[in-house]
Each structure stands twice: as structure tokens, then as C-alpha cells.
Amino acid sequence: MPTALQHALVGVTTSIPSPPVSYFDLGPLRIHIYALCIITGIIVAVLLTNHRLTRRGAEPWVVIDIAILAVPLGIIAARIFHVLTHPGFYFGEGKNIWAVFYIWEGGIAIFGALIGGAVGAWLGCKWTGIRFWTFADALAPGILLAQALGRFGNWFNHELFGLPTDLPWGLEIESSNPAFPAGLPEGTLFHPTFLYEVVWNVLGVLVLLWAGRAFHLQWGKLFAIYLIWYGAGRTVWESIRIDPSEIYFGLRTNVWAAIAGIVVGIVILIVQTRRHPGREPSPYMPGRGPGAAEVESADDSSDYVDLSAPPADPVVTGAPATSTAPSGGEGS
Q1: Residue 109: left if φ>0, alpha if ψ -120 to 50, beta else—which one?
Q2: Fewer CB within 10 Å of terminal CB in the chain, N or C?
Q3: Domain ranges of the chain
Q4: What is the mean pLDDT of the chain?
Q5: What's an example GO cellular component term for this entry (predicted)?
Q6: Taking the complete model, does pTM exceed 0.85, yes or no?
Q7: Which residues contact 57 (CB under 8 A, 6 or more apart)?
Q8: Could you tell me if 199 and 149 are in contact, meaning their C-beta atoms sit under 8 angstroms apart?
């Protein structure tokens, strides 16, 4: 007969425990691990995007100038999207409307972040002269990796888990958790949707890096693959989550958003493939980037000679042409 200790050991080795803490205090400052996961993801995305943009020929750290606008707008839009798609969390009788601003408690919607971040990135690219689609392609693997890191924040917050399961990798959720479904016995395990998305996103990073090199995907085509890849996975994980969500025509709000992401990705891929079958000439827009001022100045100079133009035909006259080059000269 197995002992109680053996049963306990089996439970520990065949399930995923939730972290015991979601924050720690540093003097008078309370640090939420959810926020650290988001910040870590942003830093990793910036570093990877900077590396990829620099390899394309952009100035080092131009990504910082773009991120200054893209990151704040992305976070704001992500929170707004979450609040609008989960109104029952914040509005109504007995609800604390100020919780709308309690971003450290969770509630960052990636689809809102994509919308706000895209607006900020477009403005940042206008400012720096980087082509918007060049930046989007450089960002694609980094943003997917950032999303993977951010999902660990949901794990620390004991939130956004899936349906009950008896699989050996089921997630342990304490029965005192407000999100624990009523009527289920204590000790029920749940699908660790955070882990599913982490694995899917990390695999997606590898796919994007490989596809970008193998097929030379530019003009936003790699970003389109990102939208299709993430949307396909999110449609599945979102469908088995049990946290409250608005339902439209039988599907959760974020399932519709994921489907929209897939459609947008397909449209971008088709349109950009038809419009731009070749490669990008530069990561910068025409007339922008390092040395652009010098080139424009040279174009305006009366002494400028276009060495790339073919030589003009000699003027035909009645006298035979004679050569003034000395015999045995260097240019023959």
C-alpha cells in the first residue's frame, strides 16, 4: 500500500505548482514579479531588434528612439484593450473603478499592445527615417520572445489558466483563489495555458529566425508570419481558458482578435509579396539615414559628376579624332 508521503511525492512530480509569492518588498518599494516579466520581455525585444536592425545596415541603437514612442503607447493601448474586453472586472455595482489603473495586478492584452505599439513604431520610424516594414520584420522574433517571457507573469499571478485536467503537467491553483471555479474540489489541476503559450512562442521565434534567413522575408512579410503564427496558437489556448471574457457569436473576444490577427497577417503577406517581389534597398527611407545629407549636398554641387553614368558619345566632326594621352600611359 502506498503511503501518504508517496501520494504527496507523486502529486509534486506530476503537476506544476504555482509560485508561492507574486511580489517582494525592497525596502518601502513593492516589486511585482509580473511587472519584472514584462520589463524583461521589453528589454530582450529591444536588444534582439537592435541586433537585427544593425545587421540590416541601420545605426546602432536607433531602436531606442523608436521604442521611446512604441513602448508607452503599446502598454497604454494594451491596458485599454483589456479593460474594454473585460468590463465586468472594473465596472458595475461593488467594483472599484480605480482598479482600471492597477496594471501590476495583471491585465495586459497583447492585441491592444500591437495596435498601440504599431502607431508608436510608425511615428518613431517617421522620426528616425527607418522603413516601418523593416522595423516590423526586425521586431517580429523579439516581440514573440517578449510575449513568452511575459506569460511567466501570469504564472506568478496565478491567473489565466485553462480547463480542469488530469494530465501530469496540470497546474496547481489554490481553492482560495477568486478565479478558482465554484463547485470543483480542492486539488483540481488545470491546463497551464501560460506554459503552452511559452512553448509555442519560443518555437515561433526559431521558425521566424529560420524563415527570415531561408526565404529573405522583407517588406513586412516576416511580421505577417508572426501574426499568423501567434494568432493560430492563441486561438487554441484562448479557447480552453476559463477566466471571464465577453462572448460574441460563441467565441471569446480574444479568439476573435486572434482570428483577426491571422487575417491581417495573410493580407500583409499577399499584398507585400505582389508589391515588393525583390529585396529592400536599404533599412532607411529614401533620403534618410547616415550620409544622406552629404549625398544631397553632392547632388546640388555644380562640380558633381555621376561616375555611374555611361560616357557620352564623342562629337563627330570633319577632323579625325586624335589622342592626347602619352604613349605608354596608365589608362589604355
Answers
A1: beta
A2: N
A3: 30-177+184-275
A4: 86
A5: plasma membrane
A6: no
A7: 282, 283, 284
A8: no
Terminal CA-CA length for the chain: 100
Query: Distance (Å, rounded) from C-alpha 286 to C-alpha 132?
Result: 13
Minimal CA–CA distance to 286: which of 129, 138, 133, 122?
Answer: 129
What is the rounded distance in angstroms from the CA atom of residue 37 to the CA atom of residue 33? 6
Question: Closest Cα to residue 201, out of 324, 330, 45, 35?
Answer: 45
CA distance 112 to 118: 10
CA nearest neighbour of 110 among 133, 160, 144:
144
Question: Quick check: 192 and 16 in contact, CB under 8 A?
Answer: yes
**CA gap 55, 283 in Å, rounded:** 10
d(CA 140, CA 138): 6
Which helix (H) or strand (E) covers residue 238, if one does?
Answer: helix 221-240
| Helix/strand/coil for 187 | coil
Up-side HSE of residue 252: CA atoms within 13 Å toward CB? 17
CA 59 to CA 141: how far, in whole Å?
A: 20
Alpha carbon 332 to chain centroid distance? 58
Residues 233/100/118/205 CA torsion (nearest 10 deg) = -30
Residue 151 annotated as lining a ligand binding site = yes
pLDDT computed for residue 332 by the predictor: 37
